[in-house]
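Following the same procedure, the fold was encoded as tokens, giving this record:
***
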Amino acid sequence: MTLTPGVEKLPHNYRLFGLDHLRAFAIFYVFLFHYSLLFPSPEWLYTIGKFGWTGVDLFFVLSGYLISSQLFAKVDRQEKISFKVFFLKRFFRIIPAYLVVVALYFLWPSIREREAPAPLWKYLTFTQNLGLDVSKQGTFSHAWSLCIEEQFYLFLPLLLIGLGYLKAMKQGAKLLLFFFIAGFCARLYMWYNFVEPGINSDGFWIIWYKWIYYPTYSRLDGLLVGVSIAALFQFRPQLKQQIQNYGNYLLLAGIALLTGAYFICENQASFGASIFGFPLISLGYGLVVMAAINPKVFLYRFPSKITSGIATLSYAVYLIHKIVVHVSQEQLSKLDIPKESVLMFVLCVLTSITGAWLLNRLVEKPFLKLRDKMLKTEKHRVFQVE
């Protein structure tokens, strides 16, 4: 788990348990949503999981906060941001497992949960989320969020390096505000020019997903909220201390905002949900994240091996859960287990966790060890040069 600014001297085995709880919640919520929406399932499951698509927004807030915290800590210490080191860290954390899953989808068509994937080059360039038509390219459609995160990982350090070069780091707050406003404007433009004209058509949902839900310009709110939290905590430590006196109120306020967002987004493709839903959800999860890293809130203090374990496997679960559920339902139904049964759901949860554990052990961990070796070599080389 990445540490927040100001805790770099804590023991190496220190974990932010609050963020572990949130990551575990996010992946299980997304899993519920996809399972109840795409696969045969108990009817009550969709009632619980229909807001689960927002788990991705929670992931965005977490990513924005954690990644920005690392970079802002360097900026605050007036250290040079190495794009090479940053890229190596993200590459070995994200790419190997992702490429394995992409290979599975393209080399083994029978495991696909939908008819066809997007062109291979879109997955390899992390542009699959742009112009995505889920009616024709629904396989591995959840890669859209990984595309946005990879674009963010490329853009943010370059932006900070550029601001540092221009000695314009103080303009960062204005840039954040600009990107927030730009998201509103982009969604408004897409709604009136592409979505609303097709509101009564049979393919309305396809249009909405293509122009509102998947594109990068529509979904930056969560990442921007995470970046804002990291900037506030790093560069305004006194304000951070004042805020932390109200940790439990932050949690309650976040839950209240998310409750309001739930009702606003009851029709996910409505005008209100499309324009205001994403930022409201992101702000709600942002407050919850701020509470989860507050020592006065129970989420921070309560350790759990279960949530820590699920948090560790969350990326792998996200990558493979649709494959595993599809294959599990097809094979287990041959044993006369109804696909829509609770037993099938429980078994699919277990097989998804097992598949994620294998992907983590066989791919993620070996490449993370390789990454650590390369980073040690890079640090040694820099030390010799200096």
Observations:
- Residues 342-385 form the longest helix (44 residues).
- The chain has one domain: 17-385.
- Residues 76 and 235 are 7 Å apart (CA to CA).
